[in-house]
Amino acid sequence: MAARARPKDRKASGTAEGDIRVVIADDHRSFGEALQIALDNEDDLKVIEVVTDGESAIESAQVQHPDVLLMDVGMPGVDGLEATRRIHREASNTKIILLSGHDDDVVLARAVEAGARGFLRKTQAVSELADAIRRANRGEPLHAVSEVELSLARFRMQRRTDGELAQRVERLTPRELEILQRVAAGEASVDIANELGMSRHTLRTHIQNVLTKLGVHSKTDAVVAAIRFGKVKTSEKLAQTDVDAS
Fold first, then answer.
1. For residue 54, what is the enclosing H or E element?
2. Rounded distance, CA 121 to CA 114, Å?
3. Do 209 and 102 belong together in one domain?
4. Which of 21, 50, 202, 233 has the highest count of CB atoms within 10 angstroms of its CB?
5. Which residue has better confidence, 92 or 76?
């Protein structure tokens, strides 16, 4: 487990009554400590700990019982979303705000589903982050209800689409997957046909069948789908041109 930054007292007597106690979890210690310095300049905020991985964030929530925990989405081992789920179950009095470098529906929807109050971009001003901490501590939403509902609807629709694609990938035959693996390895169409003992016309037919089954428009999209769901191994030689399926 990664070492933690030693809590830094702002006041000689420690945390003052009424202070909002904050823990920062970010795998880039320099970012976490810079954010600690900035937030400690706020009269009513006190950063009590900076941790650099998800397991430490969970432990900090259980031991320190912070009012608000700022959680980076992307961390090694237990990521921010899984850590949020576990803290939400085991230390529900701690309000969690997820931090991300991305601003999209997926991050917001996954944050809300995991039990966070919402998410903020890492590039937002410290004053905006401090205000969000205060709002989360009061139990107020960080996002409009309509924004959350729309994000969840889009995310769930995408998840259904992904599930359907996974089922299509499962229906590919061993021969079709072998062809996709060779495509992923960067083999030319003529070489694939020769090595598998088939004509180029037959190879094109197999490729067209794969595209139809997966509902995609190129062999690159087909390879990416097969890689995504664990049916084809990745390769730096992934071909970028389509096989002529006509």
1. helix 54-64
2. 17
3. no
4. 50
5. 76
